[in-house]
């Protein structure tokens, strides 16, 4: 098989394995080294040996130096006198035989891989006094194109001087040629040991026995042999050629994890992953001149990204850049992005091609494995669960788990956690390309529908567990379609855990549904995530999924879908500080609602508009709009709408100095959530009420409500909400005279909020400054004053 990528020791990393490759010993030098070793161990000088063997001492000197090829007579005499039981005779035969092609040279461009090189050295180099009673077997495993062959050749060439002989065989496990048969591999190894063709047996069993005998003879003269078996297909192919002799170290490369070899030969593994970004950039720079690479570091980084840091792709891309200096590196990167990275290939070598390299692995899979692999290409998230794969393929979860484990063994899939898996970017491209083949159209469309439904029905179950008392918002979807088994979710913690895990995938699934005109799931999926978004505030996912939901609602031309999607998207933009976009969306809700009549969503839109005016410092208009929202909520009987409106109307009245009204509305909201609400609702309404009590000087009640709010947020696991409550409690403690404790609480809250919710952190910072510095402080108590539109 051709060289599979590169990787070696960079200037940034040092390894005792990283040194200039030593020249392997010739067969004559191997004979001489063995002769000298036996002679010295038996305590004889060259002249003493010459006297008893009837061989001139100058010939012995030249033989030991490897300067003379031993004759049969000399070898027989020396073997008899030193009692090496034919070992010296075998070595002499090899020295006179046609030179063995042996180990291929190391790759010209090799960067990084210090840890892997060190691991190989630690595992394969065995001290003479620590020789085990069996062969030392190590295999390098990893996905196609990751540089396993390059690593093995680099290490073997670099450490050839630590062995008396290095043998090499390409097993052709994956590639254009059929996999090598055991007899073919054994024949190659025997020839490497100098065995003539007419002495090689006809059966595999006898060939293996002869190989073992040859290696045992070398063991008797203290020789250590390295065997490199490159590109193995599976454990069965390897097991039939392993000699098992104690003086032999065996280095294997394979795309599969050789579990059978681990069991039978106690093999150790070294897993190889794509390169890190710095080493990948250094590899590319080694192909093109340093000045050119240093002049366009961003373009080099872009090429590395396009190649997925996969050495095979990096080598081909770098060779193209080096071969054509009329184009800038950036132009090469743009060209690759336009043509597609699977098109990377060496023009005069069809075997050295990214797509072909992947195809050999794909075509070796069983039909059910191949189906799972290609359908993984339709999933647009960062990773996927076994349960989602089960829906994708319409099989039980246990079967999906088994097939995924087999693909992990084949290094086509990466296992992230016990039940979650992912694909390398280039392998994802290949799987997606294969799934898009017209022959799989029916399979693909059905799989996408099942996958989208799995996410939709699971998110729907989770939404009820997050906030059970929102019947006006939640929707009962009924039983899931055939082939779809939603994740088992009944508790808040289970729901929150599922959402947390799937966050990186939600926007991609929504886009997948929208792209395939599955408009209801593309819309509804976001709405069923909304309550979780309120708890965790994953801003970008919130915005991305709801932008998709709004597009789906617009394509469906359904105002009843447009209204909730626009309002809940507006809430995200408001909290992110993009007041103009939030105003535009809430105004659209009000306009569309004219044809629908009053709804709970309309009440939220009015309060949302009021909150925007609050942020802009117009508290009179804020109070008017929130009161309008409260009226609509009461009209339609929305408990959550009333709570929301009372909370924000109370905030506006507090800024207007109407503390009685602020407390009235704040207590009303807090009581509504205390009777029928959720922990999140109690925390959400409690923090503004505690603030109102603090401003009126009723610090005892302020502390009581603040503590209840903190406990409520802790109960539902809302980290940002907990920090808001802690910050308010800190200011209450400070006002009570417990200044050190108060300051510590505020600082802790700010540390949590700054990276999660900078807007709320800025509000808290202004309130803290106003309290700490007094009424003369530059910042007023109003938390939203000075907010700037994005």
TrEMBL record:
CDD domains referenced in this protein's UniProt entry, alphabetically: HTH_XRE
Identify the residues that the record assigns to the HTH cro/C1-type domain, covering every copy: 35-89
Positions the record marks as coiled coil are: none
TPR repeat residue numbers: 643-676
Locate the region Disordered. 1-24
The record's listing under InterPro entries reads: AAA+_ATPase, AAA_22, Cro/C1-type_HTH, Lambda_DNA-bd_dom_sf, P-loop_NTPase, TPR-like_helical_dom_sf, TPR_rpt, WH-like_DNA-bd_sf
Q: Which UniProt keywords apply?
A: TPR repeat
Which terms does the record give in the GO molecular function aspect? ADP binding; DNA binding
The keyword Protein biosynthesis belongs to this UniProt entry's keyword annotation: no
| Domain of life of the native organism | Bacteria
Key word Transcription regulation present: no
Which Pfam family, an example, fits this chain? AAA_22
Check the record and name the PANTHER family matching this protein.
HTH-TYPE TRANSCRIPTIONAL REGULATOR RV0890C-RELATED, REGULATOR-RELATED
Protein's name in the database = Helix-turn-helix domain-containing protein
Q: Which organism is it from?
A: Amycolatopsis panacis
Upper lineage: Bacteria, Bacillati, Actinomycetota, Actinomycetes, Pseudonocardiales
């Amino acid at each position: 098989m051709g060289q599979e990528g590169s990787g070696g020791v960079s200037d940034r990393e040092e390894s005792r394995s990283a040194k200039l490759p030593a020249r392997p010993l010739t067969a004559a030098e191997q004979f001489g080294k063995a002769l000298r070793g036996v002679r010295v161990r038996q305590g004889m000088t060259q002249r003493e040996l010459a006297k008893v063997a009837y061989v001139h001492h100058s010939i012995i000197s030249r033989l030991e130096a490897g300067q003379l090829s031993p004759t049969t007579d000399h070898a027989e005499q020396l073997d008899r006198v030193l009692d090496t039981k034919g070992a010296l005779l075998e070595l002499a035969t090899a020295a006179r035989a046609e030179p063995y092609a042996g180990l291929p040279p190391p790759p010209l461009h090799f960067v990084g891989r210090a840890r892997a090189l060190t691991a190989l050295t630690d595992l394969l180099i065995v001290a003479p006094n620590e020789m085990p009673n069996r062969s030392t077997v190590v295999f390098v495993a990893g996905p196609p194109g990751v540089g396993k062959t390059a690593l093995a050749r680099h290490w073997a060439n670099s450490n050839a001087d630590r062995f008396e002989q290095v043998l090499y065989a390409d097993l052709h496990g994956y590639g254009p040629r059929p996999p090598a048969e055991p007899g073919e591999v054994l024949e190659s190894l025997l020839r490497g040991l100098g065995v003539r063709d007419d002495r090689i047996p006809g059966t595999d069993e006898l060939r293996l026995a002869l190989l073992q005998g040859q290696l045992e003879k070398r063991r008797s003269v203290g020789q250590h042999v390295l065997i490199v078996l490159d590109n193995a297909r599976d454990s069965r192919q390897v097991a039939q050629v392993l000699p098992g002799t104690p003086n032999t170290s065996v280095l294997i490369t394979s795309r599969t994890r050789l579990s059978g070899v681990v069991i039978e030969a106690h093999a150790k593994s070294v897993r190889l992953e794509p390169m890190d970004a710095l080493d990948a950039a250094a590899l590319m720079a080694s192909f093109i001149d340093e000045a050119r690479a240093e002049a366009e570091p961003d373009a080099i980084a872009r090429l590395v990204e396009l190649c997925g840091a996969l050495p095979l792709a990096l080598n081909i891309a770098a060779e193209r850049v080096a071969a054509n200096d009329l184009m800038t590196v950036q132009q090469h990167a743009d060209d690759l992005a336009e043509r597609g990275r699977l098109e990377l290939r060496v023009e005069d070598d069809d075997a050295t091609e990214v797509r072909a390299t992947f195809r050999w692995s794909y075509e070796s899979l069983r039909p059910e494995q191949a189906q799972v692999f290609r359908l993984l290409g339709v999933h647009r998230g960062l990773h996927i669960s076994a349960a989602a794969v089960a829906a994708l393929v319409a099989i039980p979860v246990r079967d999906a788990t088994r097939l995924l484990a087999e693909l992990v063994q084949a290094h086509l899939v990466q296992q992230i956690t016990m039940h979650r898996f992912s694909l390398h970017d280039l392998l994802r491209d290949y799987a997606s390309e294969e799934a898009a083949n017209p022959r799989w159209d029916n399979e693909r469309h059905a799989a996408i529908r099942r996958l989208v439904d799995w996410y939709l029905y699971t998110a729907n179950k989770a939404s009820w567990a997050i906030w059970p008392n929102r019947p006006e918002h939640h929707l009962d979807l009924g039983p899931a379609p055939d082939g779809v088994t939603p994740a088992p979710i009944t508790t808040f913690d289970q729901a929150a855990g599922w959402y947390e895990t799937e966050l990186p995938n939600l926007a991609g699934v929504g886009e997948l549904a929208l792209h395939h005109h599955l408009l209801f799931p593309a819309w509804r999926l976001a709405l069923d995530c909304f309550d979780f978004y309120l708890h965790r505030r994953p801003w970008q996912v919130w915005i991305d999924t709801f932008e998709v939901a709004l597009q789906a609602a617009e394509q469906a031309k359904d105002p009843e879908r447009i209204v909730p999607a626009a309002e809940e998207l507006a809430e995200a933009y408001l909290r992110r500080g993009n007041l103009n976009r939030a105003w535009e969306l809430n105004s659209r809700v009000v306009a569309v609602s004219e044809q629908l009549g009053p709804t709970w969503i309309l009440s939220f839109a009015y309060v949302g508009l009021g909150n925007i005016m609050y942020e802009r410092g117009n508290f009179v208009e804020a109070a008017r709009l929130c009161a309008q929202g409260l009226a609509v909520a009461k009209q339609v009987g929305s408990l959550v709408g009333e709570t929301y409106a009372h909370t924000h109307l109370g905030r506006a009245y507090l800024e207007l100095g109407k503390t009685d009204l602020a407390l009235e509305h704040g207590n009303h909201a807090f009581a509504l959530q205390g009777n029928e609400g959720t922990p999140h609702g109690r925390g959400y309404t409690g923090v503004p009420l505690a603030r109102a009590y603090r401003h009126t000087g009723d610090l005892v009640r302020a502390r009581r409500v603040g503590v209840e709010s903190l406990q409520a947020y802790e109960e539902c696991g809302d980290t940002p909400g907990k920090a808001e409550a802690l910050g308010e409690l800190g200011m209450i403690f400070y006002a009570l005279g417990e200044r050190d404790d108060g300051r510590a609480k505020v600082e802790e809250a700010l540390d949590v909020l700054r990276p999660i919710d900078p807007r709320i952190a800025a509000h808290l910072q202004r309130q803290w400054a106003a309290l700490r510095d007094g009424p003369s402080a530059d910042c007023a108590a109003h938390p939203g004053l000075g907010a700037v539109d994005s």
